[in-house]
Amino acid sequence: QKEVEQDPGPLSVPEGAIVSLNCTYSNSAFQYFMWYRQYSRKGPELLMYTYSSGNKEDGRFTAQVDKSSKYISLFIRDSQPSDSATYLCAMTALRGTASKLTFGTGTRLQVTL
Amino acid sequence: GAVVSQHPSRVICKSGTSVKIECRSLDFQATTMFWYRQFPKKSLMLMATSNEGSKATYEQGVEKDKFLINHASLTLSTLTVTSAHPEDSSFYICSATGTGGLETQYFGPGTRLLVL
Question: Most CB contacts within 10 A, which of A22, A48, B14, B41?
Answer without folding.
Answer: A48
